[in-house]
Write a structure and sequence with these properties.
Elements lengths: L25 E10 L2 E11 L3 H16 L4 H21 L5 E9 L2 E8 L21 H8 L2 E7 L3 E9 L5
Antiparallel strand pairs: 1-2, 2-3, 3-4, 4-6, 5-6
Helix pairs in contact: 1-2, 2-3
Length: 171
C-alpha cells in the first residue's frame, strides 16, 4: 500500500472517471489536515462487494470515531448508517466487484459517502417494505439514525449515498 492521500470530499465516479483506487480492499489514508475551524480527518476505502466488507466498514468507522473522542450514541448511529449503506451497495450493485467508502470528520460533522458503480435505480420506484418482507428497510433506518441522507443514483452509472451526522463528544 502506497502513501496516498484522499481529498476531503466525495468520491465522484461521474467527474471525469472513477474515484476508484484498485480492486482490493485497501485503506488509502487517514489524514489530519489543518483547516480554519480545526482539524479535518478523512479516510477512504475500496472494499470488495462481499458481505464481510460490511463488518470491516463498521469496525473501521467505529474505531475512527472512538479515536476522535466521539460519544457512544453518535458512534452507534454512524456505524449503523454505514453498515446499511454498504449492505445496499453489496446487495444491489451486482455488476461491480467493489465499492468505495469515504469518511470525513470536520469539526463536529461526520460525512460518509458510499459509492458503487452498479446499475443504479430510480428513486421514484422505492416503496416502503411490507411488514413481512426480509429487506427494504435500509434507507428508512439510515434516515432514522443520521441527520442527513442523500441518495443520487444514475441508471448505468451507479449510486452515491451521502450520510451526515453532527457528533457529540464523549465525556
Amino acid at each position: 500500500m502506497g502513501d496516498r492521500h484522499a481529498e476531503v470530499g466525495p468520491p465522484d465516479p461521474w467527474r471525469g472517471g472513477s474515484a476508484r483506487a484498485g480492486p482490493e480492499a485497501e485503506p488509502i489514508a487517514v489524514r489530519p489536515a489543518a483547516s480554519g475551524a480545526g482539524t479535518t480527518h478523512s479516510l477512504t476505502l475500496r472494499l470488495p462487494r462481499e458481505p464481510p466488507s460490511v463488518a470491516m466498514a463498521r469496525h473501521i468507522t467505529r474505531h475512527l470515531l472512538q479515536a476522535l473522542g466521539t460519544g457512544r450514541r453518535a458512534i452507534d448511529d454512524v456505524e449503523t448508517g454505514v453498515g446499511e449503506a454498504c449492505a445496499n451497495a453489496i446487495q444491489h450493485a451486482w455488476r461491480s466487484e467493489a465499492f468505495d467508502i469515504a469518511i470525513t470528520v470536520e469539526g463536529p460533522t461526520c460525512t460518509v459517502w458510499v459509492v458503487d458503480d452498479g446499475p443504479g435505480f430510480s428513486l421514484d420506484r422505492l416503496r416502503p417494505a411490507s411488514p413481512d418482507a426480509a429487506g427494504g428497510r435500509g434507507l428508512p433506518l439510515m434516515h432514522a439514525v443520521m441527520d442527513g441522507v442523500e441518495v443520487i443514483s444514475r441508471a448505468g452509472q451507479g449510486t452515491v449515498v451521502r450520510l451526515t451526522k453532527v457528533l457529540e463528544r464523549s465525556g
